UniProtKB/TrEMBL annotation:
Keywords: Lipoprotein, Membrane, Transmembrane, Transmembrane helix. The chain crosses the membrane at residues 12-32. The keyword Transmembrane applies. This is Lipoprotein.
C-alpha cells in the first residue's frame, strides 16, 4: 500500500515536471512590473541583436516590432531613424546595453520613458517549418530598471488546430504572431 502511494506521488511529480518543461519552453516566461509599466507613455525600440545565421532577421523583427507596437497603441513610439542617429552619435553597437547617462540623454532629448531591447536567438526553418526564438526587455530611462522582460519560442506547427488548419507556413507571418504575443505580455 505504501509502495503504491509512493509510485503515485512519483508519477504526479513526473507529470508536473514534464508539463513545466514542455509548457515552460513554449510559453512566455515573463517579468512585469505593472506599477512602473503604467507610467510609461513613450518608448524607443532599439534594433534587435541578431544572433542567427539569417542576415535579414534584425531588420525583419525590428520592423515588425515597431509596426505591431504602433498598431497596439499602448505607447507612443519614437522614430527608428532618431534612435539610429542616437546610436551613431553615442557610438553604440547593436545589442549593446545602455548605461544610465545614455538613458538620461534619451529621456531628455526625445521625452522617452523606456527603451525596448531584444535579441533574436533563432529565425529560420527546421524541417521545412518556420521557427522563431526571441527575447526582449523594457528598461526605464530614469532608473535603468528592467520593468518587463519576456522570451518566446514558437514554430509554425504550434498553431495547428486540426488537420494542418492554422499551421503557419511563412517565417514573416510567424514573426508577426510571436511579436504580437510578446507585446500582449506587457499587460
Amino acid at each position: 500500500m505504501r509502495n503504491l502511494k509512493k509510485r503515485k506521488r512519483h508519477l504526479l511529480y513526473g507529470i508536473i515536471i514534464f508539463n513545466l518543461l514542455i509548457f515552460g519552453c513554449a510559453y512566455l516566461p515573463c517579468y512585469l512590473d505593472k506599477k512602473e509599466m503604467a507610467r510609461v507613455k513613450k518608448v524607443a525600440i532599439f534594433p534587435f541583436r541578431n544572433l542567427t545565421q539569417n542576415p535579414h532577421a534584425r531588420e525583419i523583427v525590428t520592423q515588425i516590432f515597431l509596426a505591431e507596437l504602433g498598431k497596439s497603441e499602448r505607447f507612443k513610439v519614437e522614430e527608428l531613424g532618431n534612435i539610429i542617429d542616437f546610436m551613431v552619435e553615442q557610438r553604440l553597437r547593436i545589442g549593446t546595453s545602455l548605461d544610465r547617462p545614455r538613458l538620461r540623454v534619451l529621456r531628455k532629448r526625445y521625452k522617452i520613458d523606456a527603451v525596448i531591447l531584444g535579441s533574436i536567438l533563432d529565425f529560420g526553418e527546421r524541417g521545412g517549418v518556420p521557427y522563431v526564438n526571441l527575447t526582449a526587455r523594457m528598461v526605464t530611462t530614469d532608473t535603468g530598471k528592467i520593468i518587463w522582460k519576456a522570451c518566446i519560442e514558437r514554430n509554425g506547427d504550434d498553431y495547428i488546430k486540426i488537420l494542418d488548419i492554422g499551421k503557419i507556413r511563412s517565417l514573416n507571418q510567424l514573426a508577426s504572431i510571436v511579436v504580437e504575443e510578446l507585446i500582449n505580455s506587457m499587460g
